[in-house]
Fold:
Amino acid sequence: MARNFACPYCYETFTAREIQFRCNTRLSRSGRRCRAERDQVRVDRLGDRGEVGPVFTADGRKPVTDCPQCGGETTYRVCPVCHSLLPVQFGMVDNRLIAMVGARNSGKTVLMTVLLHELMNRVGENFRVSLMGSDESTMTRFGSDYQDKLYKHRQMLLGTQSAASQDNRVDPLVFRFGRIQDGLLGARSQPTVLSFFDTAGEDFNSRESVELNTRYLSNADGIIIVLDPLQMRGAQELALDGTVLPPAESNTPQHVLSRITSMLLARSSGRRAVKVRTPVAVVFSKMDAFWHQLPAGSPLRVHPPQHGRFDVADSLSAHEEVRDLLKQWDGVSLDQTLESNYARYRYFGVSALGRTPTPDQQVAPTGIQPYRVTDPLLWLLSEFGSVPKQGRG
Structure:
């Protein structure tokens, strides 16, 4: 049976043979040229009204083919569903789709930005990995809309627009992740395509909106669920004095998790598996508000070991510490939901900023001091074999 691949832009699946091509509209050897035109599929799927070369069908397993209209050679391989230009070597290297979800005000957009920034810099150097935008849109958007606003202008990021407000279109950030490995012939890079979709909290306000706006969850290779402990009644009483509490939300962490779980289980109904097999990183953000409550020896108060491998023992220690905290936060039902319905999940406690933002929504004067923000993604990548592990568990 032919292997299915998921598009990193629309998350629809197809085989390598079904990948289509787009003419590059350059002058061919025969002196002919295709005219750029509006692609109605891109208009409907992506809202892109720009003019591009025509799409045609050929054997998508090949990296290059000739346009049947002008005879020109093209390497532009596109998704057969949304007509997005696929990353170089798509289908030939690992392709991992990472969905990042959470309720409104959970801090997931800031977390995603700091996580990617850290992988591009300090943590990337330690693990000998590189991360770069896979397309022009990702490089431009991540730079101007995310990284510059937070790091250069020190502004807190606005909440993610819901899919419903964008005609159910999704705009993932797609990156090329590479890990340098030493071999007999010298250092080489093992590439992986990573696609991140930051879901708006409003997309989890009801079962219907989950079904409508988050179909990509069922095709994701890994899911990062970001939960704000400050939205849990028991945790609010333990937070550091002066911590800015989020507005009262009916969309609690338990409600968000329950709706995601219901959707994932519904997609697998009729199969023998009774639990969700997709690895799920359950991330509790804003942990700096609770550091004063933790004992000095707590694994949540120390940074992970810096030896270029994902430390399994350290991760499991943090996992158990979070599980203990859930008892204090009135979150036992959340733990039971995960235990009953997920085969592979791991808890994480992180702080993207290290300090509570100022009342006018600026980064604290002490600057951005991230704490364990890359742990969830590194765990997922270690599960995929994209980064090395140390220890068992």
Observations:
- DSSP finds ten helices and 18 strands in the chain.
